[in-house]
Amino acid sequence: MQVRSDTYKSTVSIAEKQLLKQHQLKVTIFRLRLIAIFLKQNVAISEREIKKQLGTSYDRITLYRTLETFLKKKLIHKITIDKGETLYALSYSNLNYETSGIHAHFKCTACETCWCVPLDKEMFKYNYIENTFKIEEIEIIIKGKCKKCQTIN
Ligand SMILES: [Zn+2]
Ligand SMILES: [Zn+2]
Question: Which of 81, 88, 70 shows the shortest CA–CA distance to 112?
């Protein structure tokens, strides 16, 4: 007899497998585990946080290599703000935002949490930037207080 929790688990791993397939990556248990951690977060996370969530049962070199592979395949992207700790987040297009790829990072100055936030693609059209430069990468950092921290102060 199938129990409800099994059904849930298999749905979750379908999403993870799909992400690997979309990026032409072979399915491995570790890759699935790592994607599950990213899917669980709606914020960008550090390597330290990833290690914490993996617990003790992982290989450091495998983690390093998997992050490199995910970055190369653009399954995840790297964020560094003010020369601080490097953060990782799923690439924006995977989150089904219309803005596919173009987004900013919002960093809370109180709790230091970092979010990927949508930007309007049209912002870069028919204006000075598009007519003058060839854009290769867009990195926009917005700083302020997150919802939680606004209520504390
Ligand atoms: Zn905050
Ligand atoms: Zn981002």
Answer: 81
CATH code at 100? 1.10.10.10
Instruction: Give percent of the chain above pLDDT 70.
Output: 81
Structure tokens at 123: 């912002």
Distance 66 CA to ligand 2 centre (A): 18
| The pair of three-digit structure tokens given for residue 146, joined into one six-digit string | 């997150």
Give how many domains the chain has, as a whole number.
1
- For residues 24-29, give the mean pLDDT: 94
Q: What are the tokens at 63?
A: 């983690």
**What is the domain extent for residue 135?**
5-152
Q: Which ligand is nearest to the CA of 144?
A: 1
Helix (H, G, I), strand (E, B) or coil at 16: helix
Residue 122: strand, helix, or coil: helix
What's the whole-number average pLDDT of the chain? 83
